[in-house]
Amino acid sequence: MSTAKKEFKRVTVKSLVDMKQQGEKISMLTAYDYSMAKIVDNAKVDVILVGDSASNTMAGHETTLPITLDQMIYHAQSVIRAIERALVVVDIPFGSYQSDPKEALKSAIRIMKESGAHAVKLEGGKDIKDSVKRIIRAGIPVMGHLGLTPQSIYKFGTYSVRAKEEAEADQLKKDAKLLEELGCFAIVLEKIPASLATEIAKSVSIPIIGIGAGNGVDGQVLVIHDLLGMTHEFNPRFLRRYMNLYEEMSTAIKQYVTDVKSKDFPNQDEQY
Ligand code: KIV
After folding, report:
1. Looking at the predicted structure, is the pLDDT value of residue 4 above 90?
2. Sequence-separated (6 or more) residues with CB below 8 Å from residue 140
């Protein structure tokens, strides 16, 4: 039998399960607009998440709660226009699925129909079981999200590590199993102890994508603005910055201002 890794022309929910089975780690990043999504897709990131973190990164809100379904659809449409390979997953925003399963299905259908996305993500376990079931029954792939769930920030009170206590860890394990049984194709585990995340990844057949959940899971996700160092006030331990784009952009923009003020720009070659 060949051990060569399969090259995916187009990543599907099935490809992700194959990757888990083959021990190939899954890469996932957020993107919210056409230009960024094009770069991310060209770099062969497997999954692009149109996260409700757009509420923070794109709109400047303190939490993910204010972003609306219409705004998420707008971001998703822009991302979809850019991609050729990645699987695109879109967060159903706060207030668009919590009240009842019918509302959840309606929101998921709007995202799929109006943006052309490939899957949706919802935060929570047993509390949203009926909504997850209903969306999957309609043929829409669902990614779960457990651990630190930012839409519940006012319930938690802080963004600190979740499930350090046994009771919460036990509930998290049950929720992960439940989401697998309901038919979710993957689960994001955010900011939980690495040993717990590893145990969960081993106990389920669907991929577990971690953010602040250690290296024993099946893939990793980061917010693109954090990875590129466009945000500099956010410094959690789990974040690896690959650039300091805030500094680089500031330097470039300041140089532009200087060049305009000094009449250096445009020069002879830069005009008609
Ligand atoms: O909205 C988002 O960016 C997310 C990731 C942090 C997983 O949910």
Report:
1. no
2. 108, 109, 112, 119, 120
Residue intervals in the chain for CATH 3.20.20.60? 13-241
pLDDT of 1 over the 50 cut = no
Task: Report whether pLDDT(7) > 80.
Answer: no
Q: Is 54 helix (H, G, I), strand (E, B) or coil?
A: helix
Q: Is the pLDDT of residue 134 over 60?
A: yes
Name the CATH architecture for the domain at 13-241: Alpha-Beta Barrel (3.20)
Q: Which atom of ligand 1 is nearest to the CA of 188?
A: 7
Query: Which of 94, 53, 97, 83 is closest to 211 using CA atoms?
Result: 53
Average pLDDT of the chain to the nearest whole number: 96
Q: Report the alpha-carbon distance of residue 76 to residue 112 in Å, rounded.
A: 9
SS3 state of residue 219: strand
d(CA 1, CA 3): 6
Ligand 1 center from residue 4 Cα (angstroms): 32
Ligand 1 atom with least separation from CA of 53:
1
Best mutation site among 27, 28, 30 for ligand 1, i.e. most ligand atoms within 8 A of its Cβ?
30
pLDDT digits (tens, 9 = 90+) for 149-176: 999 999 999 999 999 999 999 999 999 9
User: What are 46-60's pLDDT values in tens digits?
Assistant: 999 999 999 999 999
Residue closest to 16 by CA, chosen among 28, 31, 30: 28
The closest residue, in CA terms, to atom 2 on ligand 1 is: 51
Residue 150 CA: nearest ligand 1 atom is 8
